[in-house]
Amino acid sequence: MRIGVLTGGSDCPGLNAALRAIVRKGVQSYGDSVVGFLDGWDGVLHDRALELDIPAVRGTLPRGGTILGSSRTDPLTAPDGPRRIAETLRNRGVDGLIVIGGINTLTAAAVLADRHGVPCVGVPKTIDNDIHGTDYTVGFNTAVTVATETIDRLHTTAESHKRVLVVEVMGRSSGWIAVHAGLAGGANCVLVPEFPFDLDRVCGHVESRFQATYSPIVVVSDSALPASGEVDLTGLSGIGEWLGREIERCTGHEARTTVLGHIQRGGTPTPYDRWLATRFGLHAVDAVHEGDWGAMVAVHGASVERVRLADAVSRGKRVDASLYADNEIFFG
């Protein structure tokens, strides 16, 4: 068979590990050829691609980013997009397309597979871990590791200066990074979009921590909001800076904010993300050979299984109350 592959949406650690696995499994186990489309769906729309053989992916396992490039191009909104996608695959002789992406990229794959007959198989990747139907997505573990290491380092400087340190982490509409890194890093308060926070209660946790002679660390998802509603972020970097300013105003304790931003998305993937991306890539090739179009590979426990792409992207995966309660034990 001839397999196509693309990486779409935001980059994250582990994409190259998935590409490497797809090429190795396809070429070695099935005798396939593999073509990589450049810059996500844009490469398929404009027929820009390169051949991927084993030498092309050698040494890429620990490398961050993606050797294929990426973009946020949506083929469903492009002029005559579905027809152009199908035509490119037909002209290239592609029997099946492996789509590695987040919610938006995989939503396009689901629609193309189910409504337009484009042979797509999905691989979930996003540091936000917000794709339904899989325990974890490629890139999430690395982002949590980076955030946890940052929190570990900030504890000592917080103690040295008796300051409040606010750590803003990514989380488009879910708080997965915050709850994992906050618990692992010993944060004294974790704020996520699923549960709007009460500023007075946050300040109470801060005061309680200082009374115990320790300096508090507050972790906040960049999409978290106070229960009072919208906040004015004009002139501020985001919710983290706003929160630090408000905590300082309410408590009188000096506060500083660290915004991790794209640091969470870059660099070398953790061993877990390499393992997960590799297994996803291997199983995606099997799905192509079985003609399981519209499927997405997913991890449940230690097992890699398949779910329907349409189901996986039908709703976001959000932090539930029982998981958040584990963090709340350590507030204050």
UniProtKB/TrEMBL annotation:
Top-level taxon of the source organism: Bacteria
Pathway participation: Carbohydrate degradation; glycolysis; D-glyceraldehyde 3-phosphate and glycerone phosphate from D-glucose: step 3/4
Swiss-Prot/TrEMBL cofactor(s): Mg(2+)
EC class name: transferase
One GO biological process term: fructose 6-phosphate metabolic process
List of residues binding substrate: T126, I127, D128, R163, M170, G171, R172, R256, H262, I263, Q264, R265
Broad class of where this protein is predominantly found: cytoplasm
Entry-linked Gene3D superfamilies: 3.40.50.450, Phosphofructokinase domain
Protein location: Cytoplasm
A GO CC annotation given for this chain: 6-phosphofructokinase complex
GO molecular function, one term: monosaccharide binding
InterPro entries named among the record's database cross-references: ATP_PFK, ATP_PFK_prok-type, Phosphofructokinase_CS, Phosphofructokinase_dom, Phosphofructokinase_III, PKF_sf
Keywords: Cytoplasm, Glycolysis, Kinase, Magnesium, Metal-binding, Transferase
Its job: Catalyzes the phosphorylation of D-fructose 6-phosphate to fructose 1,6-bisphosphate, the first committing step of glycolysis.
Family of this protein: Belongs to the phosphofructokinase type A (PFKA) family. Mixed-substrate PFK group III subfamily.
Subunit structure, interactors included: Homodimer or homotetramer.
Listed name of the protein: 6-phosphofructokinase
Species annotation: Streptomyces tardus
